[in-house]
Design goal:
By secondary structure, the chain is α/β, with parallel strands linked by helices. About 30% of the residues lie in helices and about 15% in strands. GO terms for molecular function: FMN binding; oxidoreductase activity.
């Protein structure tokens, strides 16, 4: 099957993409001092030069003392980091690409001792202590407001340095998702209880971002059913419940939903072949990004338990058929693009035999 559908332009308001290929956000930890350096600039430039329509950066932390959970990840505040990101933006634009930052707060997964200030505990929906020491600070209304404003400021800064939109990370068991998930949110105030209440934090945050960037600036929202704390977790069990969950987020200002799954081909609910991105597009009317082991024959979790496993390139026929049927609008590619910056060009030109396999070794360097 021809890959033509992947290379049709996409337009939504001010966002014009040359292809439907999206570089998925992937934490790389190659930004010492939390500042994107020349190697990071080149890493993103290469993908823009090789047929990727939209780059979603690795998660980059907002200006809150507990937002970071990992060493050497870039931040999205402060003079030096924003100057570093401006160099990334300029390099991507020079190649004709588009780029958005993934704005991130890790929430309760942060551990004491984590940079930049190791004395700061994690912040999350619920307090957690051990032997009298606070490991997770349960967020007050003031704390919630502070984080909301940190995201809004980051979005305003993204627009100021020329980013083409923003993605808000609401998936995978990080802070926003910790509020969504009943497994991590048992609050007894207006931010806990029903899923509608547990969504209040995200709705307020999206609304603040929208107010900060104006009506025509693209906002992408990434969400998932699965959590790093529980791969079998599900926020919703039915299409109706999914619609009830997503519509308030859509109304708050989301333009595109990035629907994170581990395997894009799996149906989300019984009785239909639609995946999460397909259902989201149907229920909200908004464009969606599908993701999950695109272009490879093994999903990422296998590499967490089997360090010697190699994922080989896989057929795109099923993906292209679904894209052609307009089940979703854009396709995020992760590990296949991480190991092979020319993946999109090779697919476009019918050079599938030249696509590189993925192994954990690819995580140790930027190519």
């Amino acid at each position: 099957m021809s890959a033509e559908a992947l290379f049709k332009p996409f337009r939504l308001g001010s966002l014009e993409l040359s292809s439907r290929v999206v570089m998925a956000p992937m934490t790389r930890s190659f930004s010492p001092g939390h500042v994107p350096n020349a190697n990071v600039v080149e890493y993103y430039r290469r993908r823009a030069a090789a047929g990727v329509g939209l780059i979603v950066t690795e998660g980059t932390t907002v200006n809150h003392k507990a937002s970071n959970g990992y060493p050497n990840v870039p931040q999205f505040f402060g003079e030096a980091p924003l100057a570093g990101w401006k160099k990334v933006v300029d390099a991507v634009h020079a190649e004709g690409g588009k780029i958005v930052p993934q704005l991130w707060h890790v929430g309760a997964v942060r551990r004491l001792g984590t940079e930049p200030d190791g004395s700061v505990p994690a912040y999350g929906p619920m307090e957690k202590t051990k032997d009298g020491q606070v490991l997770v600070h349960g967020m007050s209304r003031q704390d919630i407001g502070d984080v909301v404003q940190a995201f809004a400021q980051a979005a305003a800064d993204a627009r100021a340095i020329g980013m083409d939109g923003v993605e808000i990370h609401g998936a995978h068991g990080y802070l926003i998702d910790q509020f969504f998930w009943e497994g991590s949110n048992q609050r007894d105030d207006e931010y806990g209880g029903s899923l509608a209440n547990r969504s209040r934090f995200a709705i307020e945050l999206i609304s603040a971002v929208r107010a900060a960037v104006g009506p025509d600036y693209p906002i992408i929202f990434r969400f998932s059913q699965w959590k790093q704390q529980d791969y079998s977790a599900r926020l919703v069990q039915t299409p109706d419940a999914l619609g009830e969950f997503l519509q308030p987020l859509s109304n708050a200002g989301v333009d595109i939903f990035h629907c994170s799954t581990r395997r894009f081909w799996e149906p989300e609910f019984e009785g239909s072949d639609l995946n999460l991105a397909g259902w989201t597009r149907t229920l909200t009317g908004k464009p969606t990004i599908t993701v999950g082991s695109v272009g490879l024959d093994g999903e990422f979790l296998q590499f967490m338990v089997n360090t010697d496993k190699v994922a080989q390139p896989a057929s795109l026929e099923h993906l292209l058929e679904r894209l052609g049927n307009e089940e979703f609008d854009l396709v995020a590619v992760g590990r296949a693009l991480l190991v092979d910056p020319d993946w999109a060009l090779k697919v476009r030109d019918g050079r599938e035999q030249d696509i590189l396999p993925f192994s954990r070794e690819a995580l140790t360097t930027l190519v």
